[in-house]
Amino acid sequence: MRLSAEDARVEQRVGDLLAEQALVVPGPARVEPAWTRERLRPVVRRAVDRGILALEDVRLYVSLAESLGADFEEQRPHAWMRTWLDDAGVSDPVARLRRVVNERRRREDVVLQNRRKEEAFRLLHAPPGTDT
Fold it and tell me: What are the CB-based long-range contacts (under 8 Å, 24+) for 28-32?
């Protein structure tokens, strides 16, 4: 059975990513790998179907799936990501992916800043003698 060029690219990227994963935690210390070929293949397929082809860019897409769930594009809290990844107003699929990653980082930074501000406020306004 001959693979299509796209199927071959998916298999190549899956193999590349699995090889990297094996280098990160070698030997018997790893109980269960973060990704198996079966779990990784559909995630890489979605990236390739979107036109995300370079290993570095596929790795970026997979890292989103790793931290948010393999089906992150279908999850309601991340619906904005799918919208941005589908945005035909940005012709380069990698630019769309990087825009999603940058916005996600920005949002995470805002959440962290808000937590710090809330903690500072709580400490500043705690009644004297209370242990916070």
Answer: none
- CA separation (Å) from 24 to 5, 10, 15? 29, 21, 14
Largest CA distance in the chain: 76
Name the token pair of 22.
Answer: 């094996």
pLDDT digits (tens, 9 = 90+) for 18-37: 998 876 555 555 455 678 99
Residue type for 68, please? L
Residue 26 to residues 18, 19, 42, 60, 75, Cα–Cα distance (Å): 12, 10, 24, 22, 33
pTM of the model: 0.79
Q: Which residues of 26-52 are buried (b: 16+ CB within 10 A; e: fewer)?
A: eeeeeeeeebeeeebbebbbbbbebeb
